[in-house]
Amino acid sequence: MPENLKTTNLKQHIRQFKTMSADTKQQASKEKTNESNRSSEAQVGLFVIFTLIAAFLLMEVAGSVSLFSDSIAVDTRFENIKDLRTGDPVKVAGVKVGRVVTIAFDSNKVLVKLEIDQDKQAAIRTDSEASIQFEGLMGQHYVAIKFGDSGLPIENGTVLTTREQPDLSTLMAKLEGVADGVENMSTSFSGDTFGDILGPLGDLIKENKDKLTAMLSNFEKVSREIAKGEGTIGKLISDPEFYESATATVNKLEQTTNEINLAVEDARNIVTRLNKGVGTLGKLTTDDTLYNESTVAMNNLKEILIKLNQGKGSIGMLINDPSLLNNATTTLQKVNKATESLEDQGPMSVIGMAVGNLF
């Protein structure tokens, strides 16, 4: 009996131990599963974070966004933007300075808004010119901007002038037309055609063989004399005196040109001084006081002439009063008669008349 009891108790203990072992394994499995889930979630979270960072960096490098630099907006209008897309780069002399932001229709043209990096905007002026270019036959399109000459620095809202470039299809069509023309030309010149063209030329050469031979002989003789320095042309080519004379002439011309440049520079300086009002002529040219005084003097002279024409004042009356002219004429006539009577009388008579008139 006691042995049976011990056996029963032992079986119960073994059963309980197995049950506890199963529960422990199940609990450990659950904890392991939870840890695995937490690890997977952490890995997924880190993957998402790194993916977002990589996406932002790629967009920054590609030029589609600008997160770390200030920029200004510039507008351009094209008739045909070809295959240009938002995010495509903007370059000046091959250097990337911005990107294409938006593309939209505007008054029968395409409005392309550009975003220029603020630290590179000094390379672009208001008179800069924009055009659409592409890198190679299958390359990416981009907006190319030329340097400006005398324009002002760009600012937000500046509208740049544009220049249209022929697209690839137009170039291919032109090349196809050239190829067709060459093909037609080569087809039209067959063997018979070349024979018809060269035949008369060969006959002409045969008929004038002696003349052509004489011409070539004369040409050879002339070239030999020139090489020896004989004749006028030969002396001009080989004579060192002519070379020195020509060099001296060129030097004189250069000196004359320098003097002309100096004279032009002096004239430019004089004009500049006149414009600035320096010196007597400059003051006469630019000083408003002289102009005002001259205007007043001309007005006064005009008033005097008007008064003279109207007969006002002593001089006006002298000029316009006919009675004064008549009196002057009568007086001159009397003086003339008195002079004639004096000539007829002797000196003593004249003295006696003068003394009589005095006393």
Q: From the 3D coordinates, which CATH architecture of the domain at 69-166 would you assign? A: Beta Barrel
Percent range for helical residues?
55-70%
The general outline is flat
CA(first)-CA(last) distance: 212 Å
Strand fraction equals 5-15%
Record the SSE blueprint.
Layout: H1 2-62, E1 71-78, E2 89-92, E3 95-106, E4 109-117, E5 129-134, E6 141-145, E7 158-159, E8 161-162, H2 168-188, H3 191-207, H4 209-228, H5 231-238, H6 240-276, H7 279-286, H8 288-310, H9 313-320, H10 322-344, H11 347-358
Parallel strand pairs: 1-7, 2-6, 5-8
Antiparallel strand pairs: 1-4, 2-3, 3-4, 5-6
Helix pairs in contact: 4-5, 6-7, 8-9
Architecture overview:
The chain has 359 residues and is α/β, with parallel strands linked by helices. Among the domains are: 28-62; 69-166, Elongation Factor Tu (Ef-tu), domain 3, CATH 2.40.30. It has helices at residues 2-62, 168-188, 191-207, 209-228, 231-238, 240-276, 279-286, 288-310, 313-320, 322-344, 347-358; strands spanning 71-78, 89-92, 95-106, 109-117, 129-134, 141-145, 158-159, 161-162. Strands 7-1-4-3-2-6-5-8 form an 8-stranded mixed sheet, with no helix packed on it. Helix 4 (209-228) packs across helix 5, helix 6 crosses helix 7 (279-286) and helix 8 packs across helix 9. It is flat. The N and C termini lie far apart (212 Å).
